[in-house]
């Protein structure tokens, strides 16, 4: 999937996260979290894994995490990417 | 309590507008006239208890009623604004606030760019905004010992501008001319940029660049949160010049900034003084920038100004216009203000 426009998903509320994606030539992931010390690496893993699954190889991905669970992280990244890639027909098996 | 609070876009009823005004006033803030969209938080009784406004890409007029502070309303409200802005296709947002509020907005995903102690902070909602811009700039870097710069609006590009560029270029190995990119002038950015490029094309060591959104404009700076006019001027000038000194100048190795003397406008003259203070005297970790003020070029004893060109254009006095602008600008003006231009030619 290719990110072709700016898109956003999620909120800044506690236990949630906001994901912003923009088109870019290389893949750059920037993560800010209020639990960066404890879970920074884990969050990065979940984000990368989700991007991999969606076959996103390039783009700027900015995460503002407010202590979200993995499932929330996955859901928000998916939504932001799908919006940014202007996907209208979804291949659900990708998201398994 | 928070569960009863709802968020919405302000409906334009007189009552809600008055409520927002009242809320801002109770927080010692004024309504910023530019705001064309307010997100509000309200209670079951329809009392507006918090608001945040948007103008283009700038968040303005953020206020929380004192008895509802500490409930994280700001980040929910800012979140609403971020989503409304995204609906309009605007993702890169800025805000100005007092330095004591930095923490609050950091929680909303905003990052401080520069701080003017005790007065104001300029923030953007991305950790990589200015960094990305500076990386792009540094790709245009030219090697040299003496690297100079000029920032101009060029509304439109006059013989005075051309003289300043020629003079500065002679003193430098390379010169960067930034054209203010904001469209709040008589001539569009596209036209101004083209006229600067055309009017400087014969000078070999010049690059013309767009100023980007990081050159702060007086037109968009919210003054509603500063009480004294002098503080407002100090903050606007300081933010603009520190962004230049701390981010833009280092990415191109800029060591000096050239500017023409300002005999007409007291505001611009003050800005020139501010330039010396913030770029050369003020203590910060970035290298100092030498400010070189050059006496403006005169014609028949009168300094040339773009203001005069615009005045003569409005008066349809093209003969006078022609005296003040280079060939390149004249060709453009002739084409676009063609009425009655024949008799001059």
From TrEMBL, chain A:
The modification O-(phosphoribosyl dephospho-coenzyme A)serine is found at residue 14. Keywords: Cytoplasm, Lyase, Phosphoprotein. Oligomer with a subunit composition of (alpha,beta,gamma)6. Pfam families: ACP. Transmembrane segments: none annotated. Covalent carrier of the coenzyme of citrate lyase. This is Citrate lyase acyl carrier protein. One of its GO terms (molecular function) is lyase activity. It comes from Entomomonas moraniae.
Automatic annotation (TrEMBL), chain B:
Pfam families: Acetyltransf_1, Citrate_ly_lig. It comes from the Bacteria. SUPFAM superfamilies: Acyl-CoA N-acyltransferases (Nat) (SSF55729), Nucleotidylyl transferase (SSF52374). Coiled coil: none annotated. Keywords: ATP-binding, Ligase, Lyase, Nucleotide-binding. Signal peptide: none annotated. GO terms for molecular function: [citrate (pro-3S)-lyase] ligase activity; acyltransferase activity, transferring groups other than amino-acyl groups; ATP binding; lyase activity. It catalyses: holo-[citrate lyase ACP] + acetate + ATP = acetyl-[citrate lyase ACP] + AMP + diphosphate. Its EC number is 6.2.1.22. InterPro entries: Acyl_CoA_acyltransferase, Citrate_lyase_ligase, Citrate_lyase_ligase_C, Cyt_trans-like, GNAT_dom, Rossmann-like_a/b/a_fold. Residues 1-128 form the N-acetyltransferase domain. Acetylation of prosthetic group (2-(5''-phosphoribosyl)-3'-dephosphocoenzyme-A) of the gamma subunit of citrate lyase. This is [Citrate [pro-3S]-lyase] ligase.
């Amino acid at each position: 999937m290719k990110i072709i426009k700016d898109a956003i998903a999620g909120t800044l509320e506690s236990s949630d996260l906001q994901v912003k994606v923009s088109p870019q030539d290389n893949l750059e992931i920037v993560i800010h979290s209020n639990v960066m010390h404890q879970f920074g690496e884990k969050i990065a893993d979940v984000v990368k894994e989700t991007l991999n699954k969606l076959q996103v190889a390039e783009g700027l991905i900015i995460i503002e995490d407010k202590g979200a669970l993995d499932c929330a992280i996955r859901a928000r990244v998916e939504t932001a990417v799908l919006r940014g890639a202007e996907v209208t027909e979804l291949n659900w098996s990708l998201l398994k | 309590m928070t569960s009863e609070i709802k968020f919405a876009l302000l409906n334009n009823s007189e009552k809600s507008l008055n409520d927002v005004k009242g809320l801002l006033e109770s927080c010692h803030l004024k309504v910023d006239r530019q705001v064309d969209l307010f997100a509000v938080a309200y209670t079951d009784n329809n009392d507006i208890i918090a608001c945040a406004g948007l103008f283009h890409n700038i968040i303005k007029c953020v206020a929380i009623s004192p008895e509802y502070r500490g409930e994280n309303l700001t980040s929910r409200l800012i979140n609403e604004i971020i989503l409304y802005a995204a609906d309009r296709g605007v993702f890169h947002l800025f805000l100005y606030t007092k330095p004591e509020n930095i923490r609050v907005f950091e929680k909303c995903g905003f990052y401080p760019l520069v701080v003017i102690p005790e007065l104001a902070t300029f923030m953007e909602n991305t950790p990589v905004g200015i960094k990305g811009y500076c990386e792009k700039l540094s790709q245009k870097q030219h090697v040299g010992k003496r690297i100079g710069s000029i920032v101009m609006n060029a509304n439109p590009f006059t013989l005075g501008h051309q003289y300043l560029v020629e003079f500065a270029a002679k003193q430098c190995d390379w010169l960067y001319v930034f054209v203010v990119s904001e469209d709040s002038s008589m001539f569009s950015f596209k036209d101004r940029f083209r006229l600067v490029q055309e009017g400087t094309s014969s000078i070999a060591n010049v690059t013309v660049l767009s100023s980007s959104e990081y050159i702060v404009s007086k037109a968009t700076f919210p003054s509603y949160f500063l009480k004294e006019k002098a503080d407002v001027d100090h903050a606007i000038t300081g933010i603009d010049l520190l962004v230049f000194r701390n981010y833009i100048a280092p990415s191109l190795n800029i060591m000096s900034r050239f500017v023409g003397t300002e005999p007409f406008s007291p505001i611009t003259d003050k800005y020139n003084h501010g330039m010396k203070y913030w770029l050369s005297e003020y203590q910060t970790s970035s290298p100092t920038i030498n400010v070189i003020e050059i006496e403006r070029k005169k014609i028949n004893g009168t300094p040339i100004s773009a203001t005069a060109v615009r005045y003569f254009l409005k008066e349809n006095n093209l003969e006078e216009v022609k005296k003040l602008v280079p060939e390149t600008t004249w060709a453009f003006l002739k084409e676009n203000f063609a009425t009655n231009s024949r008799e001059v030619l």
